[in-house]
Amino acid sequence: MTVDTRERLSFWEAVGLIAGREIADQLRDWRILTPIAILTLFFPLLMNFTANKATSFVAQYGANVVADRLIPFLLMVVGFFPISISLVIALESFAGERERLSLEPLLATPLTDGQLYLGKMLASLLVPLGAAYLGIGVYLGGLALTVHWSPPPVLLAQVLMLTTMQALVMVSGAVVISSQTTSVRAANLLASFVIVPMSQLIIGESLIMFWAQYAVLWWIVFGLFIVAIVLGRMGLHLFNREELLGREIDVLSFKWAWRHVKASFLGSRSGFAGWYAGVIRTSLPRLWPSMVFMIVVLTGAYLLGVRMAGQYRIPADVLQVDAIKSDLLQQMRSFGLLSGRGWWLILANNLRAIGMASLVGIFTFGILGVILLMVPVGLIGFFAGNLSLAGFDALKYVAALVAPHGILEIPAAIIAGAAILHLGMSLVSPPAGESLGESWLTALAEWCRVSLGVVLPLLVAAAAIEVFVTPLVAAWLLGGG
Amino acid sequence: MGALIEASGLTKQFDELIAVEDVTLRVAQGQILALLGPNGAGKTTTIRMLASILPPTRGTARIAGYDVLEEAHNVRRAVGLLTEHHGLYTRMRPKAYLAFFGRTYGLSQTEAERRADQLLERFGLQQDLDRRLGHFSRGMRQKLALARAMLHNPPVLLLDEPTSAMDPASARMVRQSIEALRSSNRAIIVCTHNLAEAEALADRIAIIRKGRIVVLGTPKDLKQTLLGDPIMELRLAGRLDGAVQALPRGIEPVACGENWLRYRASKPERANPRVLEAMSRAGLSVVTLTDVGRSLEEVYLRVVSDGESDQDANR
Questions:
Q1: Which residue, B55, B131, B63, is CA-closest to B91?
Q2: What is the ipTM of this complex?
């Protein structure tokens, strides 16, 4: 008997089939429909009422600007509330089916991982997003009727895009969580990884909207789009029929984790020399793509700093580099340079910066960590740009104040940034055969090896040069010894 | 006869636990293999590997000619899987549910609905078309799950506990359906705890214990191998007086009562006429001479208890 080769579903037909069934299921569930109806119809009307009252109130005091800012802000809020439901639906997508034991028949079908995953994602996204658009429509309709306000098309496009991207990011994150947990309870507990950053984003967006810097919203839309792509790719990469069915309980085994990190940290070679050779010959080459990326972004940060100098000029009376020259060494001593204490302070500061970048990198796929490392380089570019605009020889100043220790400090930042990126990205694409936890712990051990074996010695040496050599070079090049 | 299911050295390891080890089996067209074993023996894991849901750690398997690892997509199309837990979408109605799964297997909507109607009819669920699946009894759910497995007319059926939770009439209906499917040249593996069902349905039985297939053969062969030659019971009209002595040479009684005795016969068709003749010569009236049926349960318990005693001995 041969397999019946009948009509095969196209990729998107299969995605639509999964999504369609789930959406039909959602539309039969009053626990989903009731909050959506409230948030779509009642809540926008409440916001409408609020906008009306606030507009009238502030108008009495001539503070019309408050109303001007409040109405668009409420537009964003009205869009956001219904999409919060998508988080609940997405968290339930795989974990719920697993709990109800209905997942196995679905996994036994010829549908591909991508079709199942995207079908679930779409199913979580479409109903809340539709509700959000409807809510926005109700809110705007109310405003048109009561205060005769309609949004500029660009603002409306921004809010719609923002709402869509926020929903996409929440759903992408929540589906990843749902596919990696064994129960809805566990998925809900882990939902804070989505809720906390999203709340911070909403606070940030609120500030931006009250500040009326609407152009920044496009950057947020772009950033969210990138995050959604990263999360979607991560989810697809991690989606694994075996993990979904094989794991019975989520157990955190510190003993196993410690053993794994220890084994990966020590590597296969024995003795300190063997370990160090492993760091140089194995760990560092593994980071080279990330290092290339770091070189590109740090160069970009420097150039961006130079460009920003054109926009934000430091007033000439503040930029008194000539005055500094005369007593440069003395000033440097007052900062603690040319002393052992200064060496320790600089080293501690650099270690703190690398530590902070690593910490935030863990939660942001390495992205925020890299941005933190870009900031000082950007500042150097900014000052160099200002010096240049003020008619000074910027290159000379950079050569005097940055280059001596920068020769070691910048490579340290590049390598540290690469290790952070590697650690953050280990969550996005674990190697085949490794679980998410294993992949992350291996990358953590790799980060420790590189940090201890390469970054720390470079920073120790760089701090020593910065304290004891850079001031002398600066005094020699700039005068004022 | 080509094998639709072929597994060789199939092994599955979860971290340190070896769930299935070195499973080798072959099921040809038109054959049914019953997979028996205690809970946690590795039956479901074996089925999941054969259905390309779990990748094997070692070993290979081919389903309808497709490799479970390399051609998982085709394997899934070729397999109808009845899962251990039926796990239905409780808000759906039966026809829509089956049509949905039919579509996932590539049937057109019309064809999926036509097949759904046929199977609902066959399993006596036509009168429940308007009920949501959440209101179905366990037996009805099981029937629907079985219909789901048969929906795309697959050449290979992997059925995990097909009649669990069913009343005797429904169980019989399902058994008949499985029988009917055998005749249409499918290969079927049935995991079950119901030994009578396994014996009635299966051409061959595999008993799996601690992830390994410990015995594999036809029910007759297994009984012969594990329980010895068939046992015959001779009942006389009166007491046994002289009957044991009258038995032909080479036939020894294994048990006796007041008016009966039992003996083993490797070839009953030869031994029994000789026994009857001997009794007649001795002037003893025979009431019955019957084969003492030995159930698969005895075989199963022997295999399982052997495993337990091995374990005790190793402790």
A1: B131
A2: 0.81
